[in-house]
Amino acid sequence: MSEPETSQPKILELCAGYGGIGLAVEPLIDGQVTHVAEVTKHACKILEDRFPGAENIGDVTKYDWSALVGRIDVITAGFPCQDISNAGRREGINGKRSGIWKQVAEAVGTLRPKYVFLENVAVLRTRGLDVVAQDLAEVGYDLRWTTLRASDIGAAHHRSRWFGFATPAVSHPEGI
């Protein structure tokens, strides 16, 4: 599949699901989702409609990130929450599903995007935030985060979500 021609920031949406983060970030940065990573059949059909022309790179656990070096400006990821959530087995960030976070961190380190937008369940604060922050720091990124109730932004339910925003770390000259 040929890459869409655009001068807008190019967004890679990892663990894309139905594309919600990409839909939010596109107008925020005047960007375009050019690549998605999703394996669930029904979600892939929705992504085809939402992001026409975006290439689906498939399974993040099997992808060679070097193929996208220099082609991505922004990464979004709503990495799996099943092992982190109170409704799951509570294995944390290193669980079988939520452990996909490591591939997200690897993509960030290899692709060096200008911005990284992340989303997960609010309980990530006590079941993996330390790992997320450390992994991002190890690849040279600073993380800022917050939690919001869905109802705070107009949804009918009160479920809390965690949102992270990472940028390349700023190095300071000696003495500052």
TrEMBL record:
<dbReference type="InterPro" id="IPR001525">
    <property type="entry name" value="C5_MeTfrase"/>
</dbReference>
<keyword id="KW-0808">Transferase</keyword>
<dbReference type="GO" id="GO:0009307">
    <property type="term" value="P:DNA restriction-modification system"/>
</dbReference>
<dbReference type="InterPro" id="IPR018117">
    <property type="entry name" value="C5_DNA_meth_AS"/>
</dbReference>
<protein>
    <recommendedName>
        <fullName>Cytosine-specific methyltransferase</fullName>
        <ecNumber>2.1.1.37</ecNumber>
    </recommendedName>
</protein>
<dbReference type="GO" id="GO:0032259">
    <property type="term" value="P:methylation"/>
</dbReference>
<dbReference type="GO" id="GO:0003886">
    <property type="term" value="F:DNA (cytosine-5-)-methyltransferase activity"/>
</dbReference>
<keyword id="KW-0949">S-adenosyl-L-methionine</keyword>
<keyword id="KW-0680">Restriction system</keyword>
<feature type="active site">
    <location>
        <position position="81"/>
    </location>
</feature>
<dbReference type="InterPro" id="IPR029063">
    <property type="entry name" value="SAM-dependent_MTases_sf"/>
</dbReference>
<comment type="similarity">
    <text>Belongs to the class I-like SAM-binding methyltransferase superfamily. C5-methyltransferase family.</text>
</comment>
<dbReference type="InterPro" id="IPR050750">
    <property type="entry name" value="C5-MTase"/>
</dbReference>
<dbReference type="Pfam" id="PF00145">
    <property type="entry name" value="DNA_methylase"/>
</dbReference>
<keyword id="KW-0489">Methyltransferase</keyword>
